[in-house]
Amino acid sequence: MYYKFSGFAQRLVGATAAAAYTPQGLKPIAPTESPAPIFGRTSKLASDLPATDSYLGTNKVPDLQKIFQRSDGLPVHLKRGVPDKMLYRTTMALTIGGTIYCLIALYIASQPRNQ
């Protein structure tokens, strides 16, 4: 007689030989065939692409390195000019505004209600 562990009853129960040798939902090894394509289209390998289509942009890294490595006394987060200054000032305004809002909320929450 064969036994297997029942997850529902939390004890050993009688079982067939096949169920005893594949416990708790483990299934026998299935053949390793690739599944059929879902949309009927195969994907292209990177080696199949032409060399001209592999990269469609220009390399901006050397230009950015020149900008960021310039020794002009500015911090890195302000080196790109007006857009960086606007982002920095907006971030600082939101931070200060959020801090003031939190302090006001704490002050209001600390006051007892009059009944």
Automatic annotation (TrEMBL):
Which family, according to the similarity comment?
Belongs to the cytochrome c oxidase VIIa family.
What is the scientific name of the source organism?
A: Menura novaehollandiae (superb lyrebird)
Q: Which named protein is this? A: Cytochrome c oxidase subunit 7A2-like, mitochondrial
Q: Which UniProt keywords apply?
A: Membrane, Mitochondrion, Mitochondrion inner membrane, Transit peptide, Transmembrane, Transmembrane helix
Major location, coarse class?
mitochondrion
State the Gene Ontology BP annotations: mitochondrial electron transport, cytochrome c to oxygen; mitochondrial respirasome assembly; regulation of oxidative phosphorylation
Q: Does the keyword Transit peptide apply?
A: yes
Membrane topology, from the record: Single-pass membrane protein
